[in-house]
Design goal:
By secondary structure, this protein is an alpha/beta fold. It folds into two domains: 98 residues, GMP Synthetase, Chain A, domain 3, CATH 3.30.300.130; 260 residues, P-loop containing nucleotide triphosphate hydrolases (Rossmann fold), CATH 3.40.50.300. Helices cover 36% and strands 19% of the residues. It is built from 13 helices and 15 strands. The strands form four sheets. Strands 8-9-7-10-6-11-12-15 form an eight-stranded mixed β-sheet, sandwiched between helices. The radius of gyration is 24 Å and the shape is elongated. It binds adenosine-5'-triphosphate and magnesium ion (MG).
Length: 392
């Protein structure tokens, strides 16, 4: 007999082409109406204008036509709102995890990697292929892992954590290291824009998120799931889960360094990193003002209490370099050195304030890529060398 149950049963066989799971278990089937042999189903797509909607429509129609009593199938498409989309992705992760744990083999086929671009005007073809060492993510959290996890922290916002993360990642990578960036600033994620990476999250055949791969860096950010201007409303426990998933559900290649761009302040995420990734070390970013350094002190205090090693301090926006070589200390001086002395760690470097730094970040071309011989780039490359000498 033709009823909702038999329709949903038939639709179990239809998989979302990107998430590789049944559209029924992903809650994408919104409404089913049966009028004699005429069946109408409404499917909620994860994104508007999903390029794969034709495939979903065709698959739904094909499966329903197999049922006896179905003469005509009509598929209407709607779009999930933000909360539903997050719920769906989360459900997909959980299910993929459960499948792996129970040894079920993934039925998925490989999907192509997200597109990455060097600048908004020059899109490049995807550059990531199957990478060596996939599935090492769980290992990266382990103390025995060879990957050095560096959290980039600050007490207050806007001091340049994300800028430092992006440029330091590139500087480390140019020195021969294999580098990944995890944008754990869930609310204020910006690494996608800084690296000029775009495209929705893609899953590989093992149901793992494929990182963006751009400027030589493997990168994962909330920007893969939601557009940058959209507000995220997750609270503590959900944030912790997300962090865990960024470690365990991502097809990270083998990495020498994983740089984690932390949200400003001393909140849940910094603590979570300290607790879950015991060997994670911290880099403190501050501006030269006394007040900024004092605030950064709190971030350092949390790290100390969590027995997390602080590798050193990076002072950003330290000075403006005048045409004749003079340094104009627009934000005062001494903050970085004071913070470093307080924690008895080195001041790793001072990054000048340069308009090219900001422009580069806005264009998706960090200054270490667009102008590797600038004063700021020199500082980033020097810091990368010092870090490699200090921590390996
Ligand atoms: N050395 C620099 N010279 C010029 N502009 C800079 C420099 N460092 C950062 N900026 C600019 O300052 C702004 C803030 O930097 P950034 O976003 O990296 O800070 P943040 O600490 O990550 O901020 P948030 O706390 O909001 O995440 C950006 O517009 C960035 O381009
Ligand atoms: Mg930031």
């Amino acid at each position: 007999m033709l009823d909702q149950r038999s329709i949903l049963g038939a639709l179990e066989a239809v998989h979302d082409p990107e998430l590789h799971q049944s559209i029924v278990s992903l809650n994408m089937v919104r409404e089913v109406t049966i009028d004699h042999g005429h069946v109408t189903v409404d499917i909620a797509l994860t994104v508007e204008g999903c390029p794969l909607h034709q495939q979903i429509t065709a698959d739904v129609t094909r499966e329903l036509k197999k049922l006896s009593g179905v003469d005509q199938v009509q598929v209407t498409l709607s779009v999930m709102d933000e909360a539903e989309r997050r719920e769906t992705f989360s459900r997909a992760f959980q299910r993929a995890k459960a499948q792996r744990a129970s040894g079920e083999t993934a039925t998925a086929t490989a999907v192509k990697a997200p597109s990455a671009s060097n600048s908004p005007s020059t899109r490049k073809a995807p550059v990531i292929g199957p990478l060596p060492g996939q599935g090492t993510a769980q290992g990266m959290m382990a103390e025995s892992s060879a990957t050095i996890v560096l959290g980039i922290a600050s007490g207050k916002g806007g001091v340049g954590k994300s800028t430092v993360t992006a440029n330091l990642a590139i500087a480390l990578s140019r020195s021969g290291a294999r580098v990944g960036v995890m944008d754990m600033d869930i609310y204020g994620f910006s690494q996608g824009r800084m690296f000029g990476a775009e495209g929705q999250a893609q899953m590989n055949e093992h149901e793992k998120i494929v990182p963006w791969h751009v400027h030589g860096i493997s990168l994962v950010s909330m920007g893969m799931f939601v557009p940058e201007h959209q507000a995220i409303v997750w609270r503590g426990p959900m944030l912790g889960k997300m962090m865990q998933q960024f470690f365990t559900d991502v097809a990270w290649p083998e990495l020498d360094y994983l740089l984690v761009d932390l949200p400003p302040g001393t909140g849940d995420v910094a603590l979570d990193i300290a607790q879950k990734v015991r060997k994670a070390k911290l880099l403190l970013v501050t501006t030269p003002q006394e007040v900024a350094a004092n605030v950064a002190h709190r971030a350092g205090d949390v790290a100390s209490r969590a027995q997390q090693e602080i590798v050193g301090v990076i002072e950003n926006m330290s000075y403006v370099l005048c045409p004749h070589g003079d340094r104009l200390e627009v934000f005062g001086s001494g903050g970085g050195q004071k913070l470093a002395s307080d924690f008895n760690v080195p001041l790793l470097g001072q990054i000048p304030l340069e308009s090219d730094v900001r422009q580069g970040s806005d264009r998706g071309l960090p200054i270490t890529v667009s102008n590797p011989h600038s004063a700021s780039s020199d500082a980033f490359f020097a810091i990368a060398r010092t870090i490699r000498e200090a921590v390996g």
